[in-house]
Model the fold of this input.
Amino acid sequence: MGAFQLERTKDVILAPIADHPWESRATFNPAAVRENDIIHLLYRAVEGDNYSTIGYARLQKDGTLIYRHPEPVIKRELPIEKRGCEDPRISRLQDRYYIFYTGYDGEKVRVMMAETPDFQTYRKLGQVGPDHNDKDAMIFPDFINGKVAFLHRIEPNIQLALFESIEHLLHPEPAYWQFHLENLDKFTVMYKTYEWEAAKIGAGPTPLRTDAGWLLIYHGVDKNLTYRAGAALLDEKDPYKVIARLPYPILEPERDYEKVGDVNNVVFPEGAVIFDDDLLVFYGGADKVTGLAVGKLSRLIDELWKHKL
Done:
């Protein structure tokens, strides 16, 4: 264990509800975004033989659940997502919340995009990214040198692509993704490096702006397929540049609901918010339930500075 560890504050925040068929099997891998003192949560809900939709919940700043929508807010509607709408992330850019999720058709995973102004109405915008097995995608919640910065993961590393606008992200020139795929090393931000992430890594929550740079919480998978959470700092003006990275995980499977589930030995960070110096990280436990772990942001940044690159 390393010097900085996230601490669990509760047991399970969201668990399946037997009376809701659409979320009767699993409720996990939550995206999170802060609005004043409220946390909006979008989570993956599973029914039957692993068919997924996306549900919505609202929490207080301490992680207490105050509302849970009785129906999914993003459903399987398109052929590209006929098996699942999975693993959402949320980014607020200007006056819109943009939602990125994985569309699964039974064979391939691709990145899908939607938007909402208020978490009451939702509009699907379609597929983004290359027509390739791709996931763990999101945009930074601010423009980077005037551009939209799109993080995504083509195994086993994390990539970044820049666009002139949201419209450009949705409708890039025909050769854009071909060039990206043919030059993937040029666009790779982080490589799997340590033993605890020897199989692959992927971005977790949407990057968080701090005084030190962009805080990226991510997941790493080892050769035994155990999932853990790690942390890195990206340069504020050039997020291709990793300026610090912890060599050890900050959260790993320890509790029963993280060790045993639909996929054993998984903590999968996917949502994070900051209140003053409190960092709240929402994660999926064993592909079954949603948990919450917290830590002091200042302590994490201090520890990251000890591991500058």
Observations:
- The chain is about 10% helix and 50% strand.
- The longest helix spans residues 297-305.
